[in-house]
Amino acid sequence: MAMKKRVLVILGHPNKDSFNGDIARAYAEGAKEGGAEVKLLYLDDLEFDPILHKGYETIQQLEPNLLLAQDDIRWCDHLVWVYPTWWGSPPALMKGFIERAFHPSFAFKYKRKKDFFPVQLLKGRSARLIVTMDDFRLADFIIFYHSVIRVMKWSVLLLSGIRPVRSTIFSSVKRSSKIKREKWLNKVRRLGQKLR
Asked: Distance between CA 127 and CA 145 in Å, rounded?
């Protein structure tokens, strides 16, 4: 009997009652309907210091919530990030979570200081980025070349060995109608059902 796929959905928005929260729950519901075992992680529920006070010179002792989140990331086969675009990047809460949880020795490590490429420690997982923005998608592409996607994909996930990384962008959220948002949520449920 085949094992159920394990899916971790991480909400990077600091308000679980936001439209991003609706998206995260829609994906989780779809994935359960598709036969997956699903966990939903709300970053705003975690108690941790998001600041790297000494960079990576020394690894700050991780709070219990971050250790549990790392266990969830190791547990999953498929990692889904849901977050808005604020000032061309993810929210500070999500960035702080990544800087603290995806540290060297968890997500990657260098065998020797002179090595250019690290050993990727999170291989065997795939990812989906679901991003919202108030700007129009084309404008974001022309001006920023979707930096909010590229940074997560290349600097965090692929560096850690997570691939493939697929992405979905919904824009412009602030100009969208209730009907349009329902269509987006239905699309997300279908993505969850297909475990993509």
From this structure: 20
